[in-house]
Amino acid sequence: MSTDRLLEFDDVVARYEPVFGLETHVELGTASKMFCGCATTFGAEPNTHTCPVCLALPGALPVANAAAIEATIRIGLALGCRIATWCRFARKNYFYPDIPKGFQTSQYDEPLCTAGHLDVEVDGETYRVEIERVHLEEDTGKNLHVGGATGRIHGADHSLVDFNRAGIPLVEIVTRPVPGVGAKAPEVARAYVAELREILLALGVSEVRMEQGNLRCDVNTSLAPTGSLEWGTRTETKNVNSLRSVERSVRYEMRRQAALLDDGVRILQETRHFHEDTGSTSAGRSKEEATDYRYFPEPDLVPMAPDADWVAQLQADLPELPAARRARLREEWGISDTEMAWLVNAGALGLVTDTVAAGADPADARKWWLGELSRRAKDAGTELTDLAVTPAQVAELTALVAAGTVNDQLARQVLDGVLAGEGSPQQVVDSRGLAVMGDSDELGAAVDAAIAGAPDVVEKVRGGKTAALGALVGAVMKETRGKADAATVRRMLEERVLG
Amino acid sequence: MGSRQRMSTDSSTSLSRDDVAHLARLSRLAVTDEELDLFAGQLGVVLGAVARVQDAPTADVPPTTHAVPLTNVYRPDVVTPSLTREQALAGAPAAEDDRFRVPRILQEEA
After folding, report:
1. Cβ pairs bridging A and B (under 8 Å)
2. CA nearest B108 in A: which residue?
3. Predicted pLDDT at A288
């Protein structure tokens, strides 16, 4: 669908310097809406969570949700922001059917939090992303376009609106432009959103489920010739809703803009839409005719003046933040930055932490989650966290291996059973008879059978070619379907062939 | 008379046809060419009247947001009953599939 000419990424960064910036919207996980008591439950029947306030019926008056204000301040503190001592809500006026009041209650020149930063790591390098502001506003309703071929707005006959989401507290986190990152810009943009997501999870202020739209990004990208003193004109790619898409949208805009600049074409300051399927962007409304929002202070709400002692208490009560936690765990587990990055990227850090807490050795826990379990998740097309095995069960499995009850091969069969819902690892070992065979009569019989079945090999071994013993070990392992311990088998074979 | 003098010299209190056309577009109002002239004049008079507030001696008066000097008026995060869907949709000009039905949206892409 896209006819954009794109420059190869390597050529882009050889001659151009990108600047990116992000506006991230986070739906807070409060029980009730921002200015009324309607529930915020996701996926409810349409228009069952509305009231005179969030429908903007005449005479309705908003009252701000204390928990949302607290959550916003905590986000600001976690990002090292200054917290306003006095600030107001403002009306952002525009017409759109998903905004019943004709304005969005937001904040304008007096955000709750300003001037913070977030350090993110990419390939062992730390990049500082400056935070310009964190402010509180409300979400809009949801439009459903009817009559168009694709459910998109173009060609739609009319639209249907569900106001359940209207008025859910929304925090907007705005970065300052991030220059000087060069070829790493797409990855740093992604890493920023990933780290922000981790912080929001640690704070417990939002479920941050990107697929449910709890976290949505607008990505600004501009390009200027390397060495230029001025930045280029930026585009704003709206509603980029996954980490991968954040990275792809920056990369795409860099390649598209570079091709235009190469041709001497001026970049338009415009809103663009990201297309998940193709990874491309397309032009939306031009910023030259940007809406005039006519902001003014919200007269229906009184100012917020967070008490300094309360803010200090919130600061003191912040949980351990992800970067500090990773540093501590790296130390405790004795692993490198790179190994930690693998864990984080695989989404396994929490699982490994819980597995270690359940008694497993950190190295064993990492090995299972990054190895066998990651493979299983990939094969099943699910996330690690969605596998039907708990960290406690993985810890039990590592204990069975450490005790010699099962070897690695048997442990994988035990895992099959656990994933199939057959119970705990020990229960699966018992029910499937998966314990390693010791120096038993049964194993002895298998060893004797292998010796009897390969007289030529026995001759070679007796003639000094001890390496040939491997073939006999293999035969026994095959006969016992992997349940024997290879070292035990080898010792028994040596005793009986050479002894 | 001082205030009238101010009105005629202060550009913020006079409205051009373009200003009115811009406001009409923001307000989704269809305004004819004749009406632009009419409203520019009328709104200019209204603005002029309001502009007399600027004559008040406010040099040492801090800006006021609200008639009542209150801050931090919040509600606890507690869910209260919502309207039923029937109640919510009762005032809608049109409804379909349990949702508010609105004319097609042309200006922007969702």
Report:
1. 148
2. A285
3. 42
